[in-house]
Known about the structure:
Layout (H helix, E strand, L loop, with lengths): L1 H15 L1 H9 L8 H23 L4 H29 L6 H9 L9 H8 L6 H25 L7 H5 L2 H15 L5 H12 L1 H13 L11 H22 L6 H12 L4 H10 L3 H27 L3
Helix pairs in contact: 1-6, 1-15, 2-11, 3-7, 3-9, 3-10, 3-11, 3-14, 4-5, 4-7, 5-7, 5-12, 5-15, 7-13, 7-14, 11-15, 12-13, 12-15, 13-15, 14-15
Amino acid sequence: MQYFLITLMSVGIMLLYAVxxxxxxxxRLVKAESISSFAAILMYxxxxxxxxxxxxxxxxxxxxxADMGIVFALSVLLQAAVLGVMFALLRRKSDDVRxxxxxxxxxxxxxxxxxxxxxxxxxxxxxxxxxxxxAYLLGMNLMGWTVGSAIITRNKRxxxxxxxxxxxxxxxxxxxxxxxxxxTKLPGVLGDAVALLGRMTTPLCMLIMGMRxxxxxxxxxxxxxxxxxxxxxxxxxxxxxxxxxxxxxxxxRYVREALFxxxxxxxxxxxxxxxxxxxxGQETAANMVLLGTSASVVTIPLLTxxxxxLP
Length: 311
């Protein structure tokens, strides 16, 4: 029940961040065509700072590094499997950008923008959980900048070693990992600046969703069977499959729970951000992210309550 209340309050507060973005676009303080610029700031500035900030919160130990490797491997395994299976199932409908966006949305969850605040709320005495979010996010971004982008655009040029290595997520890790491994903490002013930009990811992410909500017909949020199917799979089936994958592994319980919580996170805002940056499927991505994030007020608390009851 404790997990239920913590996650319910945390998700509810996050949803409130979308309101100012919605108002700004509706009142024309922000133009709709500017939303992609906000997405670029999120992807190229705030998210890398979140990676550096998250690792700065954790203290290196060999066991923590091993647990991070497990989180990375299991998250990549599950996401890659879902991407591959859904790609095969939806291949005949790939001419429709809605199904290409759904293909990515089936696999990618808000493991950083929503997952990290949830982990920090549930485990206030375990700052190392921030490192698990980094490991999960790294795997998702590696696939997002390569396979995910290729699926959305139907352009295979995105699947390359260069795209995998030269992207904001990987570059941020290259900066943060040596500091983490050597126990070096960012000095005061620099550390504060990186922390501030990193913490902006959640509110900025939700602001962007609110902005995009203001540009799409509200009716479209509730009338698409594809959206409901995507959200049901990502936010119910995906975490339950993940639970079977990790629960009996010989790792500490809190690591299994942290992984499961990240599996439970709703359709990733990165799906919308990639759609904005790539210029395809923005409305579908926005609807899935918005509806999925709203539904997470119910799905995350219930699923975390379930896992807390397991032996």
